[in-house]
Amino acid sequence: MKEVQILDKKFREFIPENTIQERIKELASQINRDYEGKEMICIGVLNGAFIFAADLFRRLDIKARITFIKLASYAGTASSGEIKELIGWNEDLRDKSVLVIEDIVDTGITLEHTVDNLIIRNVREIRIAALLLKPEAYSKEIKIDYIGFEIPNDFVVGYGLDYNGEGRNLPSVYTLIP
Ligand code: IMP
Ligand code: MG
Prior knowledge:
By secondary structure, the protein is α/β, with parallel strands linked by helices.
Protein backbone atom coordinates (compact mmCIF):
# COMPACT_ATOMS: atom_id res chain seq x y z
CA MET A 1 0.00 0.00 0.00
CA LYS A 2 1.57 3.27 -1.16
CA GLU A 3 1.79 5.97 1.49
CA VAL A 4 2.97 9.56 1.27
CA GLN A 5 3.75 12.24 3.83
CA ILE A 6 2.53 15.76 2.98
CA LEU A 7 3.46 18.42 5.51
CA ASP A 8 2.19 17.06 8.86
CA LYS A 9 -0.15 14.39 7.47
CA LYS A 10 0.04 10.89 6.03
CA PHE A 11 -2.02 9.74 3.06
CA ARG A 12 -2.53 6.35 1.45
CA GLU A 13 -3.16 5.61 -2.22
CA PHE A 14 -6.88 5.46 -2.88
CA ILE A 15 -7.52 5.74 -6.64
CA PRO A 16 -4.50 4.63 -8.68
CA GLU A 17 -3.34 6.56 -11.71
CA ASN A 18 -4.38 3.92 -14.27
CA THR A 19 -7.89 3.65 -12.77
CA ILE A 20 -8.28 7.42 -13.11
CA GLN A 21 -7.08 7.38 -16.71
CA GLU A 22 -9.40 4.51 -17.67
CA ARG A 23 -12.37 6.32 -16.15
CA ILE A 24 -11.46 9.53 -18.01
CA LYS A 25 -11.54 7.62 -21.31
CA GLU A 26 -15.10 6.47 -20.49
CA LEU A 27 -16.23 9.98 -19.52
CA ALA A 28 -14.66 11.43 -22.68
CA SER A 29 -16.49 9.01 -24.94
CA GLN A 30 -19.82 9.97 -23.34
CA ILE A 31 -18.96 13.66 -23.71
CA ASN A 32 -17.93 13.13 -27.34
CA ARG A 33 -21.37 11.68 -28.04
CA ASP A 34 -23.31 14.30 -26.06
CA TYR A 35 -21.54 17.36 -27.55
CA GLU A 36 -21.14 16.18 -31.15
CA GLY A 37 -21.98 19.01 -33.56
CA LYS A 38 -22.34 21.65 -30.82
CA GLU A 39 -20.48 24.89 -30.11
CA MET A 40 -18.69 23.41 -27.14
CA ILE A 41 -16.59 25.17 -24.56
CA CYS A 42 -15.07 23.59 -21.47
CA ILE A 43 -14.62 25.74 -18.37
CA GLY A 44 -12.00 24.41 -16.00
CA VAL A 45 -12.14 25.60 -12.41
CA LEU A 46 -8.65 26.43 -11.17
CA ASN A 47 -6.55 25.47 -9.41
CA GLY A 48 -7.60 21.95 -8.58
CA ALA A 49 -9.14 20.94 -11.92
CA PHE A 50 -6.19 21.78 -14.15
CA ILE A 51 -4.86 18.22 -14.45
CA PHE A 52 -8.26 16.56 -14.85
CA ALA A 53 -9.25 19.24 -17.37
CA ALA A 54 -6.09 18.65 -19.40
CA ASP A 55 -6.47 14.86 -19.43
CA LEU A 56 -10.19 14.97 -20.21
CA PHE A 57 -9.86 17.68 -22.86
CA ARG A 58 -7.18 15.86 -24.83
CA ARG A 59 -9.48 12.81 -25.03
CA LEU A 60 -12.19 14.83 -26.78
CA ASP A 61 -12.25 14.26 -30.53
CA ILE A 62 -15.01 16.79 -31.26
CA LYS A 63 -14.72 20.53 -31.97
CA ALA A 64 -14.01 21.97 -28.51
CA ARG A 65 -12.62 25.05 -26.80
CA ILE A 66 -11.39 25.47 -23.26
CA THR A 67 -11.08 28.37 -20.85
CA PHE A 68 -10.50 28.64 -17.12
CA ILE A 69 -11.88 30.50 -14.16
CA LYS A 70 -10.15 30.75 -10.83
CA LEU A 71 -12.11 30.74 -7.62
CA ALA A 72 -11.08 30.69 -4.00
CA SER A 73 -13.49 29.71 -1.29
CA TYR A 74 -13.11 31.19 2.14
CA ALA A 75 -14.78 28.88 4.60
CA GLY A 76 -15.92 31.18 7.41
CA THR A 77 -18.16 28.64 9.04
CA ALA A 78 -19.03 25.28 7.59
CA SER A 79 -22.39 26.51 6.36
CA SER A 80 -21.37 29.84 4.75
CA GLY A 81 -18.63 29.49 2.17
CA GLU A 82 -17.76 32.82 0.58
CA ILE A 83 -16.41 32.60 -2.96
CA LYS A 84 -13.91 35.03 -4.41
CA GLU A 85 -13.15 35.25 -8.14
CA LEU A 86 -9.43 35.53 -8.83
CA ILE A 87 -9.65 35.07 -12.60
CA GLY A 88 -13.03 35.93 -14.02
CA TRP A 89 -15.13 35.41 -17.09
CA ASN A 90 -13.36 36.64 -20.24
CA GLU A 91 -14.91 34.48 -22.92
CA ASP A 92 -18.14 35.19 -24.83
CA LEU A 93 -20.30 32.27 -23.71
CA ARG A 94 -23.59 33.29 -25.32
CA ASP A 95 -25.31 30.30 -26.99
CA LYS A 96 -22.40 27.99 -26.18
CA SER A 97 -22.79 24.43 -24.90
CA VAL A 98 -20.75 24.59 -21.73
CA LEU A 99 -19.02 21.80 -19.85
CA VAL A 100 -17.86 22.81 -16.38
CA ILE A 101 -14.85 20.75 -15.30
CA GLU A 102 -14.35 20.44 -11.54
CA ASP A 103 -11.82 18.37 -9.64
CA ILE A 104 -14.11 17.62 -6.71
CA VAL A 105 -17.59 18.54 -5.59
CA ASP A 106 -17.88 18.61 -1.83
CA THR A 107 -20.70 20.83 -0.47
CA GLY A 108 -21.41 22.14 -3.97
CA ILE A 109 -21.08 25.81 -2.97
CA THR A 110 -18.36 26.43 -5.57
CA LEU A 111 -20.32 24.63 -8.25
CA GLU A 112 -23.50 26.58 -7.52
CA HIS A 113 -21.58 29.85 -7.77
CA THR A 114 -20.15 28.80 -11.13
CA VAL A 115 -23.51 27.68 -12.51
CA ASP A 116 -25.22 30.91 -11.36
CA ASN A 117 -22.59 32.86 -13.28
CA LEU A 118 -23.18 30.81 -16.40
CA ILE A 119 -26.95 31.22 -16.34
CA ILE A 120 -26.70 35.03 -16.47
CA ARG A 121 -24.36 34.72 -19.47
CA ASN A 122 -27.08 33.24 -21.66
CA VAL A 123 -25.35 29.98 -22.45
CA ARG A 124 -27.27 27.40 -24.47
CA GLU A 125 -26.78 24.49 -22.06
CA ILE A 126 -24.68 23.59 -19.05
CA ARG A 127 -23.36 20.19 -18.04
CA ILE A 128 -21.00 19.38 -15.22
CA ALA A 129 -18.05 17.00 -15.08
CA ALA A 130 -16.41 16.28 -11.74
CA LEU A 131 -13.64 13.77 -11.20
CA LEU A 132 -14.76 13.22 -7.61
CA LEU A 133 -18.05 13.66 -5.76
CA LYS A 134 -18.63 13.37 -2.02
CA PRO A 135 -22.35 12.49 -1.99
CA GLU A 136 -22.59 12.73 1.81
CA ALA A 137 -21.41 16.35 1.75
CA TYR A 138 -23.24 17.48 -1.38
CA SER A 139 -26.22 19.67 -0.48
CA LYS A 140 -27.25 21.21 -3.83
CA GLU A 141 -29.81 20.28 -6.47
CA ILE A 142 -27.55 20.77 -9.51
CA LYS A 143 -27.19 17.56 -11.50
CA ILE A 144 -23.64 16.38 -12.02
CA ASP A 145 -23.66 14.79 -15.45
CA TYR A 146 -20.26 13.12 -15.58
CA ILE A 147 -18.89 11.78 -12.30
CA GLY A 148 -15.51 10.06 -12.21
CA PHE A 149 -15.81 8.50 -8.77
CA GLU A 150 -18.11 8.87 -5.78
CA ILE A 151 -16.00 8.88 -2.64
CA PRO A 152 -16.57 8.95 1.13
CA ASN A 153 -16.54 12.22 3.02
CA ASP A 154 -12.78 12.08 3.68
CA PHE A 155 -10.02 14.49 2.72
CA VAL A 156 -8.14 13.54 -0.44
CA VAL A 157 -5.12 14.89 -2.31
CA GLY A 158 -3.31 14.29 -5.56
CA TYR A 159 -4.14 14.51 -9.26
CA GLY A 160 -4.55 18.29 -8.90
CA LEU A 161 -6.02 18.33 -5.41
CA ASP A 162 -3.93 19.87 -2.66
CA TYR A 163 -3.36 19.89 1.05
CA ASN A 164 -2.25 23.43 1.91
CA GLY A 165 -0.92 23.90 -1.62
CA GLU A 166 1.01 20.62 -1.76
CA GLY A 167 0.38 17.20 -3.22
CA ARG A 168 -1.14 18.31 -6.53
CA ASN A 169 1.57 16.56 -8.54
CA LEU A 170 0.78 13.07 -7.24
CA PRO A 171 -0.52 11.06 -10.24
CA SER A 172 -2.97 9.07 -8.07
CA VAL A 173 -5.59 10.23 -5.58
CA TYR A 174 -4.61 9.67 -1.95
CA THR A 175 -6.82 9.70 1.16
CA LEU A 176 -5.95 10.98 4.60
CA ILE A 177 -4.91 8.39 7.16
CA PRO A 178 -6.76 9.48 10.34
P1 IMP B 1 -17.31 22.83 -2.28
O1 IMP B 1 -17.55 24.26 -2.69
O2 IMP B 1 -17.57 22.58 -0.83
O3 IMP B 1 -18.02 21.83 -3.17
O4 IMP B 1 -15.77 22.55 -2.37
C1 IMP B 1 -15.13 22.69 -3.54
C2 IMP B 1 -13.64 22.91 -3.38
O5 IMP B 1 -13.12 22.57 -2.09
C3 IMP B 1 -12.97 22.00 -4.34
O6 IMP B 1 -12.94 22.56 -5.63
C4 IMP B 1 -11.62 21.81 -3.71
O7 IMP B 1 -10.79 22.88 -4.11
C5 IMP B 1 -11.89 21.87 -2.24
N1 IMP B 1 -12.01 20.52 -1.67
C6 IMP B 1 -13.13 19.89 -1.26
N2 IMP B 1 -12.87 18.66 -0.78
C7 IMP B 1 -11.52 18.51 -0.90
C8 IMP B 1 -10.62 17.41 -0.58
O8 IMP B 1 -10.99 16.33 -0.09
N3 IMP B 1 -9.31 17.63 -0.85
C9 IMP B 1 -8.85 18.79 -1.39
N4 IMP B 1 -9.66 19.82 -1.70
C10 IMP B 1 -10.98 19.69 -1.46
MG1 MG C 1 -11.59 23.14 -7.03
